[in-house]
């Protein structure tokens, strides 16, 4: 039982980063009804940028973080401008396919530049374990959870109370009307990409610090995409909770069935949710307007 | 006899009432117009008849049979066809393929027969083509554009193709949602003529939403007026035109503006 | 031209005598080529035929019906393992294992597709992504059946006492299957069922008004596309004579997605052109890398896979943005230019 609880705590802690990644998916989905399949690769590239700044250049971690976020935002804006914007008005599956293609391309380029072997990230997170009563949680995971939660809270608050956040929610509700109300829809789209880039940069660095750094780091985002379904796409709170649930499921199935089961757990969970609650655990059935 | 009966329908979206206790009927072989100012609930009514919206209460009957719970695609098999307010053609396809889709309910081929394309499918497809040429293409004068992709056509022609697609199954009930909106006078005249011609040939019952009062008065045997999702009048075009409530709610406002 | 009989001819598979002549010529080339052609070209064309089948399958799902599948490779894997297992354990001939491979894959496809296709929206993307990873997991972990990463080895296919153990023999097995399946797909889209698929892609709710049962037809499209994947996978098992999980990873799904997009979504000719382009591409990339590798001392084996990823991704992006109708559109433009030359500049 003690071990089970420890795995549970570990899983929920890992789920914090998933929630942060999921947030990146949801903001873009809200504004443009598209899954950004390049999310994982945005994380991966960010992690490499941070690695280069801190390890190869030997910069202070805060400088590294600032540079990483800047580069990540730049990449996201370039993608939004060069790849997504020309596709506006096209069928949604084309938009999804184009982000998917962009992601594959980024992974290929990263492997060419940095090689497909794994690198070890320097630990800016302390390794000292955190004790939660009787429960032992590895230091990096616990601290990554804290960082992820802080960023998630910050972004959600921004989303809720800032002018831009209100405009974003209005755009999500009704694009045409928002446009008529003088909201610059293009700016809003760009802004969702910036938010996704920030959550991608931080979650990428966290993921690489907990595990290790390789061009396939981004694959974890696909697991998280399944999570987004679990939460129901229209509910940010739901998606965040789903992130924690999946982190927990992965850890527990890994413990109970063996580590090879970990990676397919989110997908099995997603299929089960689709089967039983098609609009997600927390989502609502949309009113169809024809 | 009434082909369509709408009995005390109410419909609301999250607390907003789109339709309240609406009743009306469409007599066999007649043209019934539904009029009313914007937002009166006309298109919502059509969506209830098509089966997209489920009314909160009330019933829809087709030839006396309750179809309120019948799913949209089954209603096509019952003989309900429809055109849309904003032309809803299949953009990547030719005129001919669009029209052929209108006959989906009259064909039988499953995927195996279709892929082999011998015997029944071959006969079925050439019979369909022959019927389309004989009935709708010649009636609606579409021969010069049959192989064109619909997106290349003018708006007026697109509306005509949509009518063709609805007519191909020889519907018992035809729902036309603003068939002449955005057309010039000549095109309107042509389309009115096509509607009358179709009714003449197949005794189709027509339910028509239209803002062009001239056309409504000319074509319809009976007019139903909605305002704010409620019935406010019904009768011949003459009766409706002189109904004071209609004048104040609808025509009066139109005159004022 | 619009006389009464013209439209009967309009509906025929071959519309002009010229087309029949071309078809006969093509048939003759297809028979003579594997007998007299150089071995590695025959091998290449066999692989091409298999890729055409798989691309056609994905085109039915994605190009024609507008449903996105990211698990096509895993479905091919189901076909490959089915054919291989039936051949190894029950000694079944290929003319039984291949249909079985197709049928079982279609069934697996329906199992994955059903929950997500009941609802409108992008849910099939997630379900097929789930299929890609879960099926791959099954291939690796169900050791007692699939021999895990070691994989299965097949005896060559046989028919009428002839062993199909060379690329020339394989060509005669693969090509007729490809032609039959291409014709089937082509016919599908000049009939009721195929039209309903395209209608769903263009405007699903309007299709519903016309009597198309959305869930049924989406599932049907997905099942047919998966059947194609299964048969292609089965043929691949005979072609390479081994089946390992690694062959059917996400990158192969990307390969076929690129193939559909590059060739042309919603076009039979597109499937052929796309498969041709994508089958040649890795060879060209290998040549380029070897050329530069010798000059600059790059490790060829390390660069080749990421380079493929990069180029596949780049092709998907570029074609979607600049040529959404794929090579077919470019081909039609050239044909029109040639046909009207020199009348039009």
Strand order of the largest sheet of chain A: 1-2
Radius of gyration of chain B: 19 Å
Q: Structural class per helix/strand content of chain B?
A: alpha/beta
Helix percentage of chain B? 40-55%
Which of globular, elongated, flat, extended, rod-shaped describes the shape of chain A?
globular
Could you give me the name of the CATH homologous superfamily of the largest domain in chain B?
P-loop containing nucleotide triphosphate hydrolases
Q: Enumerate the strands of the largest sheet of chain B in spatial order, edge to edge or round the barrel.
A: 6-7-8-3-9-10
How many structural domains are formed by the residues of chain B? 2
Question: Which architecture of the largest domain in chain B per CATH?
Answer: 3-Layer(aba) Sandwich
Q: What percent strand of chain A? A: under 5%
- Count every beta strand of chain B, where a strand is a DSSP E run of 2 or more residues: 10
Strand content of chain B is: 15-25%
Structural account:
The complex is a heterotrimer of chains A (290), B (257) and C (345). Chain A is mainly α and 290 residues long. Chain A has a domain at 23-215. Helix content of chain A is 72%, strand content 2%. Chain A contains 11 helices and 2 strands. In chain A, strands 1-2 form a two-stranded antiparallel sheet. In chain A, helix 2 (39-56) packs across helix 9. The termini of chain A are far apart. With 257 residues, chain B is α/β, with parallel strands linked by helices. Chain B folds into 2 domains: 1-79 and 171-257, P-loop containing nucleotide triphosphate hydrolases (Rossmann fold), CATH 3.40.50; 89-170, no CATH class. Chain B contains 10 helices and 10 strands. In chain B, helix 3 packs parallel to helix 6 (155-167). The longest helix of chain B has 20 residues, at 120-139. In chain B, 45% of the residues are buried. The mean pLDDT of chain B is 89. With 345 residues, chain C is mainly alpha-helical. Chain C has one domain (38-340): Orthogonal Bundle (ABC transporter involved in vitamin B12 uptake, BtuC). Chain C has 15 helices and 4 strands. In chain C, the strands form 2 sheets. In chain C, strands 1-4 form a two-stranded antiparallel ribbon. A two-stranded antiparallel sheet of chain C has the order 2-3. In chain C, a hairpin with a 2-residue loop joins strand 2 (157-159) and strand 3 (162-164). Chain C is globular and about 55 Å long. Chain A binds chain B through residues 287-288, 290, and chain B through 13-14, 47, 52.
